[in-house]
Write a structure and sequence with these properties.
The chain contains 5 helices and 11 strands, in the order αβββββαβββαααβββ. The strands form 2 sheets. Strands 1, 2, 3, 4, 5, 6, 9, 10 and 11 form a 9-stranded mixed β-sheet that branches. Strands 7-8 form a two-stranded antiparallel sheet. The protein has one domain. Helix content is about 20%, strand content about 35%. It has about 230 residues and is α+β, with helices and mostly antiparallel strands. A hairpin with a 7-residue loop joins strand 9 and strand 10.
Protein backbone atom coordinates (compact mmCIF):
# COMPACT_ATOMS: atom_id res chain seq x y z
CA UNK A 1 0.00 0.00 0.00
CA UNK A 2 2.79 2.41 -0.94
CA UNK A 3 0.46 5.21 -2.06
CA UNK A 4 -1.24 5.43 1.33
CA UNK A 5 1.98 5.21 3.37
CA UNK A 6 3.42 8.17 1.50
CA UNK A 7 0.33 10.26 2.17
CA UNK A 8 0.53 9.61 5.90
CA UNK A 9 4.25 10.44 5.98
CA UNK A 10 3.67 13.69 4.13
CA UNK A 11 1.09 14.92 6.64
CA UNK A 12 3.19 14.11 9.71
CA UNK A 13 6.05 16.18 8.31
CA UNK A 14 4.01 19.38 8.55
CA UNK A 15 3.87 21.62 11.64
CA UNK A 16 0.07 21.60 11.68
CA UNK A 17 -1.56 18.76 9.80
CA UNK A 18 -4.63 19.22 7.64
CA UNK A 19 -7.90 18.04 9.14
CA UNK A 20 -8.37 14.43 8.08
CA UNK A 21 -10.66 11.54 8.84
CA UNK A 22 -10.28 7.89 7.84
CA UNK A 23 -12.62 4.90 7.78
CA UNK A 24 -11.55 1.30 8.32
CA UNK A 25 -13.75 -1.80 8.06
CA UNK A 26 -13.33 -5.10 9.89
CA UNK A 27 -15.78 -7.85 8.93
CA UNK A 28 -16.86 -9.80 12.02
CA UNK A 29 -19.64 -12.04 10.71
CA UNK A 30 -22.63 -12.54 8.47
CA UNK A 31 -26.20 -13.79 8.37
CA UNK A 32 -28.19 -15.16 5.46
CA UNK A 33 -28.81 -11.65 4.18
CA UNK A 34 -26.28 -9.29 5.80
CA UNK A 35 -22.57 -8.77 6.31
CA UNK A 36 -21.67 -7.37 9.75
CA UNK A 37 -18.78 -4.91 9.97
CA UNK A 38 -17.04 -2.95 12.71
CA UNK A 39 -16.24 0.41 11.10
CA UNK A 40 -13.74 2.69 12.82
CA UNK A 41 -13.59 6.39 12.12
CA UNK A 42 -10.38 8.18 13.08
CA UNK A 43 -10.40 11.99 13.08
CA UNK A 44 -7.12 13.82 13.74
CA UNK A 45 -9.04 16.93 14.89
CA UNK A 46 -6.58 19.12 13.02
CA UNK A 47 -3.65 18.25 15.32
CA UNK A 48 -0.82 15.74 15.43
CA UNK A 49 -1.23 14.57 19.02
CA UNK A 50 -5.00 14.10 19.26
CA UNK A 51 -7.48 11.75 17.68
CA UNK A 52 -11.17 10.95 18.03
CA UNK A 53 -11.91 7.28 17.38
CA UNK A 54 -15.49 6.06 16.87
CA UNK A 55 -16.56 2.50 16.21
CA UNK A 56 -19.88 1.58 14.59
CA UNK A 57 -21.53 -1.72 13.79
CA UNK A 58 -22.67 -1.75 10.18
CA UNK A 59 -25.03 -4.23 8.51
CA UNK A 60 -24.43 -4.45 4.76
CA UNK A 61 -26.76 -6.21 2.33
CA UNK A 62 -25.20 -9.31 0.81
CA UNK A 63 -27.47 -8.85 -2.21
CA UNK A 64 -26.85 -5.19 -3.07
CA UNK A 65 -23.65 -4.42 -1.14
CA UNK A 66 -25.28 -1.33 0.34
CA UNK A 67 -25.17 -0.42 4.04
CA UNK A 68 -28.61 -0.99 5.53
CA UNK A 69 -28.20 -0.26 9.26
CA UNK A 70 -25.63 1.29 11.57
CA UNK A 71 -25.32 1.35 15.35
CA UNK A 72 -22.85 3.26 17.57
CA UNK A 73 -20.53 1.11 19.70
CA UNK A 74 -18.01 3.38 21.44
CA UNK A 75 -15.95 6.57 21.21
CA UNK A 76 -12.42 7.16 22.51
CA UNK A 77 -10.32 10.32 22.45
CA UNK A 78 -6.57 9.73 22.39
CA UNK A 79 -3.68 12.09 23.14
CA UNK A 80 -0.19 10.97 22.17
CA UNK A 81 1.65 13.33 24.48
CA UNK A 82 4.70 12.52 26.67
CA UNK A 83 2.31 10.36 28.67
CA UNK A 84 -0.28 8.92 26.25
CA UNK A 85 -3.84 9.35 27.48
CA UNK A 86 -7.21 8.03 26.40
CA UNK A 87 -10.69 9.09 27.43
CA UNK A 88 -13.92 7.37 26.51
CA UNK A 89 -17.20 9.13 25.77
CA UNK A 90 -20.68 7.62 25.88
CA UNK A 91 -22.56 7.46 22.59
CA UNK A 92 -26.33 7.64 22.60
CA UNK A 93 -27.86 4.30 21.72
CA UNK A 94 -24.56 2.40 21.96
CA UNK A 95 -24.96 -1.34 21.41
CA UNK A 96 -23.15 -4.60 22.02
CA UNK A 97 -22.41 -5.78 18.46
CA UNK A 98 -22.73 -9.44 19.36
CA UNK A 99 -26.22 -8.96 20.79
CA UNK A 100 -27.32 -7.40 17.50
CA UNK A 101 -25.73 -10.25 15.57
CA UNK A 102 -27.29 -12.89 17.83
CA UNK A 103 -30.73 -11.38 17.23
CA UNK A 104 -30.07 -11.63 13.48
CA UNK A 105 -28.92 -15.27 13.79
CA UNK A 106 -25.58 -14.14 12.38
CA UNK A 107 -22.47 -16.26 12.33
CA UNK A 108 -19.52 -14.66 14.14
CA UNK A 109 -16.57 -15.06 11.80
CA UNK A 110 -13.91 -12.47 11.09
CA UNK A 111 -12.43 -12.21 7.62
CA UNK A 112 -8.72 -11.69 6.98
CA UNK A 113 -8.91 -10.27 3.43
CA UNK A 114 -5.98 -12.03 1.79
CA UNK A 115 -3.23 -9.96 0.21
CA UNK A 116 -4.25 -9.42 -3.43
CA UNK A 117 -0.60 -9.57 -4.45
CA UNK A 118 -0.83 -13.32 -3.93
CA UNK A 119 -3.02 -13.31 -7.05
CA UNK A 120 -1.05 -11.60 -9.78
CA UNK A 121 -1.31 -11.20 -13.50
CA UNK A 122 1.50 -11.56 -16.03
CA UNK A 123 2.23 -8.31 -17.78
CA UNK A 124 2.72 -8.09 -21.58
CA UNK A 125 6.50 -8.54 -21.17
CA UNK A 126 6.41 -11.12 -18.40
CA UNK A 127 6.45 -8.63 -15.53
CA UNK A 128 4.12 -9.10 -12.56
CA UNK A 129 1.18 -6.72 -12.40
CA UNK A 130 -0.99 -6.39 -9.28
CA UNK A 131 -4.69 -7.02 -9.62
CA UNK A 132 -6.87 -3.95 -10.11
CA UNK A 133 -10.55 -3.47 -9.31
CA UNK A 134 -11.66 -4.19 -12.92
CA UNK A 135 -9.77 -7.50 -12.66
CA UNK A 136 -12.01 -8.76 -9.84
CA UNK A 137 -15.41 -7.51 -11.02
CA UNK A 138 -17.20 -6.87 -14.28
CA UNK A 139 -18.94 -3.89 -12.68
CA UNK A 140 -16.40 -1.48 -11.12
CA UNK A 141 -19.08 1.23 -11.01
CA UNK A 142 -21.09 -0.88 -8.56
CA UNK A 143 -18.05 -1.08 -6.27
CA UNK A 144 -17.54 2.69 -6.37
CA UNK A 145 -21.26 3.18 -5.62
CA UNK A 146 -20.92 1.00 -2.52
CA UNK A 147 -17.94 3.05 -1.34
CA UNK A 148 -19.75 6.36 -1.85
CA UNK A 149 -22.87 5.07 -0.06
CA UNK A 150 -20.85 3.74 2.90
CA UNK A 151 -19.18 7.13 3.35
CA UNK A 152 -22.54 8.94 3.25
CA UNK A 153 -24.15 6.39 5.56
CA UNK A 154 -21.36 6.79 8.13
CA UNK A 155 -21.49 10.58 7.97
CA UNK A 156 -25.17 10.58 8.88
CA UNK A 157 -24.50 8.37 11.91
CA UNK A 158 -21.62 10.28 13.53
CA UNK A 159 -22.79 11.99 16.70
CA UNK A 160 -21.60 15.50 17.65
CA UNK A 161 -18.24 15.65 19.36
CA UNK A 162 -18.27 16.72 23.02
CA UNK A 163 -17.10 20.21 23.84
CA UNK A 164 -13.58 20.54 25.20
CA UNK A 165 -10.00 21.62 24.54
CA UNK A 166 -9.05 18.39 22.78
CA UNK A 167 -9.03 19.75 19.22
CA UNK A 168 -7.73 22.51 16.99
CA UNK A 169 -10.19 25.37 17.50
CA UNK A 170 -10.75 25.61 13.73
CA UNK A 171 -11.02 21.89 12.98
CA UNK A 172 -13.42 20.75 10.29
CA UNK A 173 -16.48 18.73 11.28
CA UNK A 174 -16.42 15.01 10.46
CA UNK A 175 -19.49 15.46 8.26
CA UNK A 176 -17.72 18.08 6.15
CA UNK A 177 -14.60 15.93 5.91
CA UNK A 178 -16.60 12.92 4.79
CA UNK A 179 -18.54 15.03 2.29
CA UNK A 180 -15.22 15.90 0.64
CA UNK A 181 -14.44 12.23 0.05
CA UNK A 182 -15.31 11.83 -3.62
CA UNK A 183 -13.21 9.07 -5.12
CA UNK A 184 -12.72 7.89 -8.67
CA UNK A 185 -11.68 4.40 -9.68
CA UNK A 186 -8.14 5.70 -10.15
CA UNK A 187 -8.00 6.75 -6.48
CA UNK A 188 -8.64 3.19 -5.26
CA UNK A 189 -6.92 -0.17 -5.13
CA UNK A 190 -7.55 -3.62 -3.70
CA UNK A 191 -6.49 -3.97 -0.07
CA UNK A 192 -7.62 -7.59 0.21
CA UNK A 193 -10.03 -10.23 -1.08
CA UNK A 194 -12.07 -12.96 0.58
CA UNK A 195 -15.01 -15.31 0.04
CA UNK A 196 -18.00 -16.29 2.14
CA UNK A 197 -18.54 -20.01 1.65
CA UNK A 198 -22.25 -20.59 2.31
CA UNK A 199 -23.10 -24.02 0.93
CA UNK A 200 -25.78 -24.83 -0.14
CA UNK A 201 -26.29 -21.11 -0.83
CA UNK A 202 -24.08 -19.42 -3.46
CA UNK A 203 -20.67 -18.23 -2.30
CA UNK A 204 -20.19 -14.46 -2.03
CA UNK A 205 -16.97 -12.71 -3.01
CA UNK A 206 -15.79 -9.81 -0.86
CA UNK A 207 -13.04 -7.24 -1.11
CA UNK A 208 -11.71 -4.43 1.00
CA UNK A 209 -10.98 -1.40 -1.14
CA UNK A 210 -8.49 1.30 -0.13
CA UNK A 211 -8.96 4.81 -1.52
CA UNK A 212 -6.99 8.01 -0.97
CA UNK A 213 -6.90 11.48 -2.46
CA UNK A 214 -4.26 14.20 -2.62
CA UNK A 215 -5.51 15.75 0.63
CA UNK A 216 -4.79 12.57 2.60
CA UNK A 217 -8.40 11.50 3.03
CA UNK A 218 -8.39 7.69 3.22
CA UNK A 219 -10.84 4.80 3.53
CA UNK A 220 -10.53 1.03 3.70
CA UNK A 221 -14.06 -0.24 3.07
CA UNK A 222 -15.52 -3.71 2.65
CA UNK A 223 -17.56 -4.29 -0.50
CA UNK A 224 -19.62 -7.15 -1.92
CA UNK A 225 -18.51 -8.08 -5.41
CA UNK A 226 -21.37 -8.42 -7.90
CA UNK A 227 -21.91 -12.02 -9.05
CA UNK A 228 -20.04 -12.94 -12.18
CA UNK A 229 -22.30 -13.36 -15.19
CA UNK A 230 -21.95 -16.41 -17.36
CA UNK A 231 -20.87 -15.69 -20.95
Amino acid sequence: MKKFTLLLWATTAQATPPDMISLYDRVIGYSDTRLFILRETEDNLGLHIYGMHDVYLVAKSLETGMDEAIWPVYRVHSASEATPQTRSFALAGAVNPFEIMAAAAARIESRDFRDPNLHRLDGPEGEKTALTIPDITADPAAIMAQIAQSIHFTSAAIQPYPEGDYANMSYTSPQDLLASMVYSLQDCEIDGVDTLFRYPQPDIALARIACADEDGQQVWLAVVLPPKTEP
